[in-house]
Amino acid sequence: MATTRKQFVTGVPSHRNAYDLFDGRWASDLGEVDPSFPRQGVPGFSTDPRPRQAAEHLGRDGRFEGYDILELGPLEAAHSYQLERLGARSVLGIESNTDAFVKSLIVKNMLGLNRSTFLLGDVAAHLAEPGPRYDLIFCCGILYHMLDPVELIRLAAGRSDRLFIWTHYVRDQPRLKHLKPRPYRGHGLDLTLYEFTYVGIGQGTFWGGNRPRTHWLDLPAILAILARFGLSRTTIIADWPDFPNGPAVTLAASRPGVA
Fold first, then answer.
1. From 165's CA, which of 71, 158, 177, 208 has a CA 20 to 30 Å away?
2. What is the CATH number of domain 43-254?
3. What residue spans define the domains of the chain?
4. Across all residues in the chain, what is the average pLDDT?
5. CA 29/CA 76 separation, integer angstroms
6. Cα–chain-centroid distance for residue 131?
7. Residues 6 or more apart from 104 whose CB is under 8 A from it?
8. DSSP letter string over 59-87?
9. Residue 197 phi/psi, 5° resolution?
10. pLDDT tens track for 118-156
11. Which CDD domains does this chain map to (predicted)?
């Protein structure tokens, strides 16, 4: 790729030129879907099982046919791609990170995602505004990046009867000494939040939240919050107590009586 300066590309037009705008700063392995791209990053476009797990537990016959899905923090649209392939009628991805938003648009263009739309802004702010209900809210890798995870679940439960979550959680607090316990009381809940302060904000490979601090939850607290706001039918799909960077859980939550 020949360039005269950063704002202009003078070589032959290609999707690879768009990819190279973020060379070395991709989290996802685009080589999964196009072998001409480098094999590096997380295999989210086909190998990652989480969209399929969401469809198995919260879809119909393992599919999302007819579903309007809200995706919180699509990052680089790898899961959006899978959600479309699983039959979603529409996918709306809300992304706060400006680089990740542009990368999602690059992937949308590159892979021809014609049922996915990406908006730039805060997920909680979107959920707090009046708007439609969704057949599913897909919340993968974002809950532990929230300053107020209780509020995120409350708002999500107000806009959907089905919530899919993958998140880190607190299991052995002494092991995670960088987390500071903070009492939380509100909405009839009496919990402990665990404060985490980011390092590396502003770096090209920072994929955390949009505040300097965030709060983690332990797993009983997550289940209690879901139940408090009506999503009490929960299934723990997978639990990794020894997951890198902290314990992690995949779970499906829905309102009782919802098919």
1. 177
2. 3.40.50.150
3. 43-254
4. 92
5. 10
6. 20
7. 74, 75, 76, 77, 80, 93, 95, 118
8. SBTTB-BT-EEEEE--TTTHHHHHHHHTT
9. -110, 130
10. 999 999 999 999 999 999 999 999 999 999 999 999 999
11. AdoMet_MTases (cd02440)
Q: Give the range among 38-42, 59-63, 64-68 with minimum mean pLDDT.
A: 38-42
Say what the pLDDT of residue 47 is. 94
Q: What is the mean pLDDT of residues 55-75?
A: 98
User: What is the band of 2 on the pLDDT scale with cuts at 50, 70, 90?
Assistant: very low
- Measured distance CA(200)–CA(206) in Å, rounded: 6
DSSP state of 30: G
* The overall pTM is greater than 0.90: yes
Token pair 């999500």 is at which residue? 156
Who's near 178: CB < 8 A, 6+ residues apart?
196, 197
CB 124 within 8 A of CB 149: no
Residue 65, strand partner residues: 88
- Res 1 pLDDT > 50: no
Rounded Cα distance, 258 and 256, in Å: 6
The DSSP bridge partners found for residue 42 are 28
At 116, list the tokens.
């996915």
Bridge partners of residue 165, in order along the sequence: 139, 251
Q: How many Cβ atoms are within 10 Å of 86's Cβ, its own excluded?
A: 20
Q: Which residue has the higher pLDDT, 246 or 102?
A: 102
Separation of CA 197 from chain center: 20
